[in-house]
Amino acid sequence: MTTEIEVVERFLATLEALDVDGAVALCADDVVYQNVPLPPARGRRAVEKQLRAMAKAGTGFDVEMRNIAANGPVVLTERVDILRRGSFAMEFWVCGTFEVRDGKIVLWRDYFDWPTFLASGVRGAGRALVGAVTRRTAR
């Protein structure tokens, strides 16, 4: 029998592998996914659509887990997510709430600080630009 924490860890690992099919397979038909305060995606198809858009927009996704805990079917994660696209990378703190029923995720709600998220994007763009200029002048 798989624990709720193991389901969430496997789900995040499939996202790190950019395996949308594998991630969606770990979701219940009635799954709800929300990046608070954005509107939630309701149902497996809507969640799959969002995950495919994210996978298409990026070339990499990493999770650095800081803490994970469960209370029955509820799993709380404190982590740093790293989004990549080519030489661009941004990392930001995320707190996630997952609810697991019968080995499937029925709720995935992520909370993060929007100003920190935006600042991380600016820093990532700056690092990518400096790297591009450095590579260009080194030729």
Tell me what you see in this structure:
It contains four helices and six strands, in the order ααββαββββα. It has helices at 4-16, 20-25, 44-57, 114-138; strands at 27-36, 41-42, 60-71, 74-85, 88-101, 104-111. The termini are far apart. With 139 residues, it is α+β, with helices and mostly antiparallel strands. It is elongated. It has a six-stranded mixed β-sheet with strand order 2-1-6-5-4-3.
Quick structural summary:
The chain has 139 residues and is an alpha+beta fold.
SSE pattern, N- to C-terminal:
HHEEHEEEEH
- Give the beta-strand count: 6
Strand percentage lies at 35-45%
User: Helical stretch count?
Assistant: 4
Span between termini? 56 Å
Largest sheet: 6 strands, mixed
Low-confidence sequence ranges: none
What is the residue-averaged pLDDT?
89
Query: In which order are the strands of the major sheet placed?
Result: 2-1-6-5-4-3
Silhouette: elongated
How large, in whole angstroms, is the Cα Rg?
16 Å
Helix/sheet category: alpha+beta
Give the helix proportion (percent range): 40-55%
